[in-house]
Amino acid sequence: MWKKFFFIWKNFHIFVLGFKDMAAKKKLKPYNTDGLSSGLLAEPEVFYGYRPAYTNDINLLMRSKQGLNAKAALDFISLSGFTQDEFQGTFNTTVKTIQNHVTRQLTLDAALSEKLLKSFELFDKGVEIFGTADNFHKWLNKPAFGLGYQVPMTLMDTITGIKLIMEELIRIEFGDLA
Length: 178
Prior knowledge:
Strand content: under 5%
Number of strands: 0
Largest sheet: none
Distance between the termini: 44 Å
Number of helices: 9
Shape: globular
């Protein structure tokens, strides 16, 4: 019995080590951004302030329930390049309401906080893949093959839509476009 166990463990260990080596050697090709702006990546500092809140689901849940400072919504607009109409359509609230919350130093409700944090996470991944928030924003406004030729921006109004876009970004990152 021990021989059989050792054999299985040894083969599993070799498989795992081989997988790690294969993953480490895999060179990722940058996504083709022809026709997109080639500005320098200047936005990461905005992500850093929110990144601890979305690094895992427990942090996301706890931070969402606390409510984000309303300034987070204005930071997102600034980072993402969303127009006021895009923001209002995606987050179902007006920019004027957000500005009033900022002035009165109010926090956002849990649902809006969660959607904002998931959107920050999405843009973090998008900037990683496309190089700049501007390039990612342009991609969001074009039909995506992996999303059934739907425009990703139209899916961002729900958490499930954000999840689907994230899955598409991961497929792009690893070259799985089929």
